[in-house]
Amino acid sequence: MFKNIMHHRASSCSDCAKLCCTKIEDFRVKIGNLTIFEDVNLHLHCGQLTALIGPNGAGKSTLLKAILGEVAHTGSLQYTAADGRRKGQPIIGYVPQYLRFDVSAPISVMDIFLACLTEKPVWLTSGRKMRPRILKNLARVHAEHLIDRRLGALSGGELQRVLLALALDPLPDLLLLDEPVSGVDQNGLELFYEILAELREQEDMSILLISHDLNMVARHADQVVLLNKAVVTSGTPEEVFADKRTRQIFGLLAGFQQETQGGNA
Amino acid sequence: MNEIYTLLDILLPFDWAHYTFMKHAFLAILCITPLFGLLSTMVVSNRMAFFSDSLGHGAFTGIAIGVLLGAVSPLLSLIVFSIAFAVFITYIKNKSTASTDTIIGVFSSTAIALGLMIMSRGGGFNKFSSFLIGDVLSITVEDLQALVFVVLLVLVGWAVLFNRLLVLSINSAFARSRGISTFCVESMFAAMLAVVVSISIQWVGILIINALLVLPAAAARNVTNNVKSYQLLSVAIALTAGIAGLLLAYYFNMAAGATIVVLSAIIFFVTLLLKSRFVR
């Protein structure tokens, strides 16, 4: 875990100036009179997996949508590359909750890649030229064999990996994942986190992940942010899960401390 | 036009093809049904069946306003009003938190009521009743020229918009993350639908035009596995039902639009039965 030593594990403002990092400042989303969340300040370091946890209705999905620019918000988002050459808006990859996807239409995995990557209408192009690139993208998530399958015929885990592969072309600076674990079987889950670990180390990208599986978070995240209408607490998994407020929000989680200590070594 | 008539006489040495009005109807069906086939794929995939239904109602008001204004050509007023109506619904739909079908329901019923109100003024509604059922045999040379123009326009629009629409149809947040302006793409698609509905409403009729924007794709998606075959089959179904419907309507003296819809519906039920054989 060389990366973990290189990067600071807790977020603070000063280190963001030197390292490749995405800075989120004073994010606030208000819909009508209802404040979804406010005072959200986050520093997402490259090569780190930041897990966003919180109860239902805490504003986690909305925060991702605000970062994407889909939901109107106040506050600023600033990306700085490691060499300082590029600043401003990061390239964002997004993996939405696959359960929200409409996969009833006859669309193959190949089709959806073509639609995302080329301007040529899918019904005109054979896509022969693009096929190697698409296969390479799918290989990254161990899903080459799915290229000609219909989206609706994929299992939850398979669809999720295909969506991840899509979010990785063009290679993003910041990868956002919304509840990617729900409805995926245990093997699929392990594979997914393995792929994320590979990405984090090989491509040096920041990953922000909404998760409900606190055990997985404890094992794989570098940084944890507890959101409940505002950032309640953030830091390493050990710090956050030891916090009294975390325990209050999630209730007493027996055996949690053990998992945290055992899994993160 | 004369060259085309001669060509048709050579290609179609049948009784029905002798009449000029049937030649016109045949050419119109040949042009418009592939458009219905193409557009319907995204109407169905984007769950816009109710929306496209409201476009027909909007067109009704468009006709009424055209009559009221008198001076401008009815087709022009119809197209302009329909586009404005379609884009406006899309805008409100994106702005408001009320559910989509409620918003469309409100606009759709307002439009048809407004149209009826204007048309029935002075008790002269009967002369508009042809818009309800449509008359494919009333197509003029000018209509055909306008139609060819619309076909070209929609094909270009389809080439430009298609990939974005496809991504949008799967998930709007995902589309947004790929840099697709959802409102822009949706309104352009809505405008395209509005133009096609406007131009064909006098032949197909308000009551059934929506069927043509739903059935071809609904049938095609039952038996296809990728986008290309989906599009091709949808166009083929629309075209087949269109031409067969026209001929049946001619020989049995029925409304052509309705016959086309019934044939499309039969194809839909056949594909529904075949679904398990084709879909992987």
By secondary-structure content and strand pairing, the structural class of chain B works out as mainly alpha
- Tell how many strands the DSSP assignment of chain A holds: 10
Distance between the termini of chain A: 9 Å
Classify the helix fraction of chain A into a percent range.
25-40%
Count up the helices of chain A.
Answer: 10
CATH architecture of chain B: Orthogonal Bundle
Largest interface: A-B, 40 and 32 residues
Mean pLDDT of chain B: 88
Mean pLDDT of chain A: 80
> Strand share of the residues of chain B?
under 5%
For the record, give the distance between the C-alpha atoms at the N and C termini of chain B, rounded to a whole number.
47 Å
Keywords:
heterodimer; A: 265 residues; alpha/beta; Rossmann fold; six-stranded mixed beta sheet; four-stranded antiparallel beta sheet; 10 helices; disordered N terminus; B: 280 residues; mainly alpha; ABC transporter involved in vitamin B12 uptake, BtuC; 13 helices; 79% helix
Give a written overview of the molecule:
- The complex is a heterodimer of chains A (265) and B (280).
- Chain A has 265 residues and is of the alpha/beta class.
- In chain A, 34% of the residues lie in helices and 23% in strands.
- Chain A has 10 helices and 10 strands.
- Chain B is mainly α.
- In chain B, 79% of the residues lie in helices and 0% in strands.
- In chain B, helix 2 (20-45) packs parallel to helix 7 (141-170).
- The longest helix of chain B is centred in the middle third of the chain and has 30 residues, at 141-170.
- The radius of gyration of chain B is 19 Å and the shape is globular.
